[in-house]
Specification:
Blueprint lengths: L4 E6 L4 H12 L4 E7 L4 H11 L3 E4 L2 H14 L4 E4 L1 H8 L6 E4 L7 H9 L3 E4 L2 H17 L3 E4 L2 H9 L14 E8 L17 H5 L8 H9 L1 H13 L7 E5 L5 E7 L4 E5 L5 H9 L13 H4 L13 H12 L3 H17 L8 H11 L8 H21 L4
Parallel strand pairs: 1-2, 1-5, 2-3, 3-4, 5-6, 6-7, 8-9
Antiparallel strand pairs: 8-10, 10-11
The structure holds nicotinamide-adenine-dinucleotide and magnesium ion (MG).
């Protein structure tokens, strides 16, 4: 067996972070945690340090770092405690980390994930927003720095497993691949009429019927914005043109996605709706390890259902294809407007059914331009946030 792999974990206290720790815990002979970051939930960060003894722990602020130094040193004397953007980048590019799990939520994950890419790491990418915000530059950096990208998003991990061997860096769909079939459960409101969505509460939107996830991605699943972001994520990860990416509604979430070939073959990856499977797959790749996941009992599941997605009912899907057709900073605008709208909805400032109208209005208000530098993408992100907040306050307040 190979040497112990050092792992950096960005977003250690989140849903993906906890699932990653669960897999690491089962394989101390294969992996060791070298750095961990958290933004709040500092008691959990102390527990992580006590159990895994990382070399570096990064928290949200100087005050938090000062308060955590004592408790962390008491349980793990070798752990250095730090905070801020430079410390996040240091955690991501830690010399002892071979693999970096990028599991910070939202555009905030871009800079630390890029730091891992620029350090030439194996980057286990959960943070799909990085690709939506600045996919072209991100993939260019992967190539330039010899980093390896392994998708964690269950659909993209499934596609990765169904495609012929690839080098993990947007090489492009090889000959013989006809299309990528992204499956989506349809979320908690799949069968609810659009007119009945006005009164949806944050707790209802976050109660996903199949997957247990962080609150932002749960709301994204309820609007199907998550699938919209995943269409763009697939475009960049697999260098797949928009017309070769199709969405299929599959309420049971047993098939995590499929690849269709020219000869008529369709290859699917199946599994429990448990993120520890893609996480274990990417951590150990190309080996296979136990993820601690229940075995799939197909006879108990009985039937798998499929349907076409409803683009009227879920306008986010239509917007994703429009964003791909526009290109440039449209992805950054799309992602940032969604983040602000979701935050507003979770805080009770925006109606659920106003999320997509806010995003569409931002896309109409700010013209897209070519992403020539990272600054251009980040400026579009900033402008979209300001415009979304203005629209919410002036036109869409709940
Ligand atoms: P979460 O909200 O549960 O956790 C987010 C983590 O990021 C936490 O550790 C938090 O402390 C940290 N964080 C939040 N804001 C930060 C900031 N400004 N700076 C630094 N750190 C910050 O989210 P999650 O559900 O674990 O999702 C994480 C990422 O993985 C998202 O990009 C999501 O789209 C993706 N993803 C999640 C799932 C899932 O099942 N949860 C599945 C596929 C993809
Ligand atoms: Mg997914």
């Amino acid at each position: 067996m190979s040497a112990v792999r050092g792992v950096a974990l960005l977003g250690a206290t989140g849903s993906i972070g906890r699932s990653t720790l669960s897999v690491l815990r089962q394989h101390p002979d294969r992996f060791c945690l070298v750095s961990a970051t958290a933004h709040g939930r500092s008691a959990e960060l102390v527990d992580i340090c006590a159990e895994f003894k990382p070399e570096l722990a990064v928290c949200r602020s100087a005050d938090e770092a000062a308060a955590l130094c004592g408790p962390i040193r008491a349980v793990s004397p070798g752990t250095q405690v730090d905070h801020g953007a430079a410390a996040l980048a240091a955690a991501a590019s830690h010399p002892a980390a071979e693999s970096v799990m990028a599991a910070i939520v939202g555009g905030a994950g871009l800079a630390p994930t890029l730091a891992a890419v620029r350090a030439g790491k194996r980057v286990l990418l959960a943070n799909k927003e990085s690709l939506v915000l600045a996919g072209g530059l991100f993939i260019e950096a992967v190539r330039a720095h010899g980093a390896v990208l392994l998708p964690i998003d269950s659909e993209h991990n499934a596609i990765f497993q169904c495609l012929p061997a690839m080098d993990g860096g947007g090489r492009g769909l090889v000959g013989g691949v006809r299309s990528i079939l992204l499956t989506g459960s349809g979320g908690p409101f799949r069968t609810r009429a659009r007119a009945d969505l006005a009164a949806v509460t944050p707790d209802e939107a976050c109660a996903h019927p199949i997957w247990s996830m962080g609150r932002k991605i749960s709301v994204d699943s309820a609007t199907m914005m998550n699938k919209a972001l995943e269409i763009i994520e697939a475009h960049w990860l697999f260098a797949a043109p928009a017309e070769r990416i199709r969405v299929v509604i599959h309420p049971q979430s047993v098939i995590h996605s499929m690849v269709e070939y020219d000869d008529g073959s369709v290859i699917a990856q199946l599994g429990q709706p448990d993120m520890r499977t893609p996480i274990a797959h990417a951590l150990a790749h190309p080996d296979r390890i136990d993820a601690g996941v229940k075995r799939l009992d197909l006879a108990a599941i009985g039937t798998l259902g499929f349907a076409e997605p409803d683009f009227e009912r879920f306008p986010a899907l239509r917007l994703a294809y429009e964003v791909l057709a526009t290109g440039g900073t449209a992805g950054a605008l799309f992602n940032a407007a969604n983040e602000v709208a979701v935050e507003g909805f979770l805080a009770g400032r925006l109606r659920f059914d106003a999320i997509e109208p806010v995003i569409e209005s931002v896309l109409q208000a700010i013209p897209a331009e070519p992403v020539t530098t990272l600054e251009v993408a980040l400026e579009a992100d900033r402008r979209a946030r300001v415009e979304a907040a203005r629209l919410m306050a002036e036109h869409f307040a709940s």
